[in-house]
């Protein structure tokens, strides 16, 4: 222990400081506090060990040291608070428009940091090694290995190629086809680009999942607070100045307004007669089927236009550009029209504001993610000649080589076009719709214009735009490695556009909602997008034959086959160690440990189900899965808090 404290403590401090900077970029105060606690405990442990080795051991000195460390921790927290990304802007938005709108911008900030860090991960293991090392160009003797990139000399075509990812951009670092097997000319050094490419993709997905789970845990810990809790403990005494004080007052006002509106809605539904409840529930079921009908029509339109776009692919000119962007246009139109119709349906359903937000999120995410899935299914069916795999062009090369000489780059181009088109649509709406609408409303006094009024900042549709954009990046990251960097720039532009339109063009929302619940469901919806992208990743790695004419896996039967081939090239000692990890001697103790964690999980579900609270149950499950070593303490706290809230609710209703 003394050697650890004396020799390696400085390295532990540096690692924890890096984590503190990362959490501050995310605005995660709980993560910073945990890191500061770890530093404090390590320092105290070091001091205790040194004092125990000396004859003059004083408890008073130890107590003073703890007090000094506590003050140091608070000072460090206050210092790092100023490095939070867009801190003042987010605080101003929360004070003027409430926590619900603020949660959208916090979510957007999280995605900016996530994509920025992911880009450095991809650049460090794939982009920079490919740039520094020389490419070993393989020969193309047979028909399957033909890959031709069409370039042009016309100026306007360069702009079209930039927007569609074709021409001069097709064979570049942007897409999969550029990354070949790479080695130094003297063969003294070899960097396995195929293995690095596939492992970076896997670690990228795992990193995003870990970030989302750790982000959701502190959000779950803040539930519905009682009015006395908000009034007596909600004030932040570190607020200095009139501006910060007024913003905090408005924030507390919004919290009370949301809770009172939710309580009023619950009492109104409880007072309904049986006949009115039957009518209300029947309307809700009917409106649900109607909304699914709209979504199904959008899916059919996407399927038809994608097939038309791939069959009638014209390489040059404006017509070719329109045909290439036709699936993106239909997806964007469906994502714009169908949520508007579902919002009108929500007025008939008469749910509470928070429930309306959740239903709108679920319907819109189902539309956007499944529409993206329809696009991918259509591409996959044409690449693999499904369901007639043994007919046509797939017999010789195991994929449609005539239409898709480098099918990975084609999929990456589709995701690139979706990202660029989404950015262009947001900027165009910002400049050509939102600003003119505000000018017309402010300068025209006629009744129809005043009845329409300024727009509201609709949180569900804006959040689904972020989830959709991030899902597109996850799907295309394997085929377009620089897509996270492009998405980072896109989200930065989107942040400033949304901020300007919020303060200049929007009016305060007529219906408020709770920010804690919405923030949690934002991350849940994002997990749905991550799940869709993971399915695409697994299918691409394990099922489809890589293109013969491009990419680092041209000589492999599947992309994943590179991993076992690289494993058998390792030394015997390394292979024996990895075989031991997969043996019974290692797996049985691991299984016993997992059973202990699973038992804690089962206890959590059983205790929370007694309380008849699905939200608390899911809360406890996430906490236990993220921190299994603290699950017992978490369960006791969560169980006692839920019992206390249930007791207070029953007492107030009585």
Automatic annotation (TrEMBL):
GO molecular function, one term: mechanosensitive monoatomic ion channel activity
InterPro entries xrefs: TMC, TMC_dom
Localisation per UniProt entry: Membrane
Entry membrane topology: Multi-pass membrane protein
Pfam families, alphabetized: TMC (PF07810)
Top-level taxonomic group: Eukaryota
A GO CC term assigned to this protein in UniProt: plasma membrane
Transmembrane stretches, start-end: 7-25, 79-98, 104-137, 158-179, 191-213, 278-302, 322-342, 354-380, 472-497, 518-539, 577-597
Main location (coarse class): membrane
Domain TMC: 406-515
Keyword hit for Transmembrane helix: yes
Keywords assigned: Membrane, Transmembrane, Transmembrane helix
PANTHER family in alphabetical order: TRANSMEMBRANE CHANNEL-LIKE PROTEIN 4 (PTHR23302:SF45), TRANSMEMBRANE CHANNEL-RELATED (PTHR23302)
Family classification: Belongs to the TMC family.
Protein's recorded name: Transmembrane channel-like protein
Species of provenance: Neolamprologus brichardi
Phylogenetic classification of the source organism: Eukaryota, Metazoa, Chordata, Craniata, Vertebrata
